[in-house]
Amino acid sequence: MMTRVRGVERVQPAYATIEGAGVRLHRAFGYEDVPLFDPFLMLDDFRAGTQPEDYLAGFPWHPHRGIETVTYMLEGKIEHGDSMGNAGIVNAGDIQ
């Protein structure tokens, strides 16, 4: 069996942005990058060490229009609710 090694095409650092009703986050890639990362739409990074008030505003109601979202919690926990009234707690190591 032959192993194929691919090189790194580019390094793309995440950039600070504000999303939703004022939530501060870092976006690794977003809307303008879709052709490069299809089928993914965006990848956001919510870092530990930021102030809890950075997240309290949350995200206003918005339809996902068939797009699946994935939350992977590395450390800590978060109470998450969506626009349809579904809610739960995502703990370290969990995927929602």
Short characterization:
By secondary structure, this protein is mainly beta. Helix content is 4%, strand content 26%. It has one helix at residues 34-37, and strands at residues 15-19, 23-29, 43-45, 77-81, 87-91.
Average of per-residue pLDDT values: 81
With strands numbered from the N-terminus, the spatial order across the biggest sheet is 1-2-3
What is the number of helical segments per DSSP (H or I, 4+ residues)?
A: 1
Largest sheet: 3 strands, antiparallel
Q: Low-confidence spans: pLDDT under 50, at least 5 residues?
A: none
Categorize the overall geometry.
globular
Structural class: mainly beta
Summed up, the domain count is: 1
**Which range best describes the helical content: under 10%, 10-25%, 25-40%, 40-55%, 55-70% or over 70%?**
under 10%
Instruction: Assess the beta-strand content as a share of residues.
Output: 25-35%
Radius of gyration, taken over Cα atoms and rounded to an integer in Å = 16 Å
User: Terminal Cα separation, in Å?
Assistant: 36 Å
The run of helices and strands is EEHEEE
Number of E strands: 5
Task: Describe the protein in words.
With 96 residues, the protein is mostly beta strands. It has one domain (15-60, 70-91). It is built from one helix and five strands. The protein has one helix at residues 34-37; strands at 15-19, 23-29, 43-45, 77-81, 87-91. The strands form two sheets. A three-stranded antiparallel beta sheet has the order 1-2-3, with no helix packed on it. Strands 4-5 form a two-stranded antiparallel sheet.
